[in-house]
Input
Amino acid sequence: MTDAATLAGLDPATLSDLLRVAGAPGFDRLTEQIRRTGGCAAPIRLAGGTKLLDPSTRTVLHAYSTEGEPGGVLRVACGNRRASRCPSCAWTYAGDTYHLIRAGLVGDPDKGTPHTIRDHPRVFATLTAPSFGAVHNRPGTRPCRCGVHHQEDAPELGTPLDPATYDYAAAVLWNNHASELWRYFTIYLRREIARRAGLTQKAAREQSRVSFGKVAEYQKRGAVHFHAVIRFDGPDGPDTPPPAWATLDLLTDAIRAAAARVRVVVSANADHGFVKDWTLRWGDQLDIQPIGAFGAGEDLTEQAVAAYVAKYATKAAETTGTVDHPVGNKEALVLLGVPDHPRRLMEACMDLDAAYPDRRLRAWAHMLGFRGHFSTKSRRYSTTLGALRQVRADYRAAQQRTALGLPDPDDHPEATVLVVAHWAYAGHGSTPGESWLAANIRRDIQQNRELAREESGGGELDADER
Output
């Protein structure tokens, strides 16, 4: 419940708009709409309506229009995966990613994987960028090269000891080509597997399949690195067991060899002052850990891996101090207060843009050059995010049918309903008062989820909670 002290702490513009919203007709319905979006920070506003018709008689079974809604619009969740943009939608995205990754580890027939995949060799691999110059760090019990024992949250961590000698150009070019480095890694991995099995590549493909799910994360220094679940399957994917030669040791050795082979060359462009080629490769810090079955006592369990991947699926370069939106010029970086190190990385993107226009470095400067997808998977790893979203949509549709007293088409195939809809985009975002209201609703929903999880012993969330 909101008290007077909380309201008194609001800035005048927000307080004034909140009082306007609270006093306007339809406040309860507005609150209901915001709650149905999960407290979305930037809802999409739609105008229009739908009709449910009996296709044989054209009888209107149900009609809905936004004309009677607050402001004449329906608010729907924005769906943004970034926690910095919308914590509510990011929570949903993280939950979907968790279930997608976990389904590829423990098995879930409803998500395209049998429970027998727990017996397949699988590892959790982290591939990092090379060094672009010495940075402040926390090397175990030793002091940093600067002579200081940094605290865990020290702002200088990840920043260069000497910015003048740090290779900012190579750093952003590496980020920009990171997805290509990963693509070449997957190609070489299959070749290395065949070599170690003593088979041709064709024979290896006929006997086995490699599946993966990965997520990108930014290190404090602003370099992207990838966390990946890599799994051995049989020739038809997760439904078939891998051959006897497809062992955990063979997979681990092949990953190391493949990562060492990858090279991407960025040619020089003397016309723009870049007189040498850049040879991009993975860093020496390659971590590969076997994934143990959940509950078997291992440190790296299936649930821990899925939670770790989901955590970083909603984060991006803003964790390094940059911004979460495109920036047009260097002057704007100063006005936005971007810290020195990420500012230099963004400036490097802008300096390189003319020399490599096809790489669109200026457009991706806010991402420190990275232009790939943050979470990807191979086709047969497990289910898809689209399928998970469809489950949620079907669940909501079933709720609506029950509320309207309409039959379930699965139980009554003859009871087909024709849906006629017309929607128009009417803007997005909220007023200051609506934003404050959404933030409080989101906080209440989160607290209720945490309480429900504690009471249930920390089990999985059902479709409604997701």
Remarks:
- The chain has 13 helices and eleven strands.
